[in-house]
């Protein structure tokens, strides 16, 4: 039986069956929503976010910073919010409202305190804080949302082309 055709709305790339994708136009207030089923789909989500940011004419340094931060947040949520045998999807919502870009990653799992000695791991949020202009962690009734904020204008790491 053939797979259903990917759904597509807006000016972004069509979605794949693996990751849900909703894109609105790339003008003021543009949004990208990705449903990421698990770790194997993080690479696809990273590619889609990169394409969306590039299509929005953001500077390459800013695009690289945002994509790296988002990947780290997605991996953290996929690895740490759920028990391995109870994995559930995480959601990425990127919203561009110049001069700000916000990227939120939301899970429906449980916050887990970092290990006392994380070894070579456990530096993800530190890295995200270094890349973003601001990071907010919000405990939800069912899960956690981490939002990273970036400046897209002259004060940011990459200017919007125009």
UniProtKB/TrEMBL annotation:
UniProt xrefs under Pfam families: HATPase_c_2
Protein known as: ATP-binding protein
ATP-binding keyword on record: yes
Keyword ATP-binding: yes
Species for this entry: Actinokineospora guangxiensis
Every Histidine kinase/HSP90-like ATPase domain range: 42-149
Matches recorded under InterPro entries: Anti-sigma-factor_SerPK, HATPase_C_sf, HATPase_dom
GO MF annotation, one: ATP binding
Taxonomy, superkingdom: Bacteria
SUPFAM superfamilies, per database record: ATPase domain of HSP90 chaperone/DNA topoisomerase II/histidine kinase
Assigned keywords, A-Z: ATP-binding, Kinase, Nucleotide-binding, Serine/threonine-protein kinase, Transferase
């Amino acid at each position: 039986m053939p797979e259903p055709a990917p759904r597509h709305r807006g000016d972004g790339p069509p979605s794949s069956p693996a990751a849900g994708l909703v894109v609105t136009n790339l003008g003021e207030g543009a949004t990208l929503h990705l449903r990421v089923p698990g770790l194997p789909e993080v690479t696809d989500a990273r590619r889609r976010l990169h394409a969306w940011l590039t299509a929005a004419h953001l500077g390459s340094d800013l695009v690289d910073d945002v994509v790296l931060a988002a990947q780290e947040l997605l991996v953290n949520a996929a690895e740490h919010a759920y028990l391995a045998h109870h994995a559930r999807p995480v959601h990425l919502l990127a919203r561009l409202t110049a001069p700000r870009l916000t990227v939120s990653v939301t899970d429906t799992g449980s916050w887990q305190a970092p290990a006392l000695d994380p070894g070579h791991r456990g530096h993800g949020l530190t890295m995200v804080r270094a890349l973003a202009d601001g990071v907010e962690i919000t405990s939800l009734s069912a899960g956690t949302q981490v939002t990273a904020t970036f400046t897209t204008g002259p004060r940011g790491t990459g200017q919007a082309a125009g």
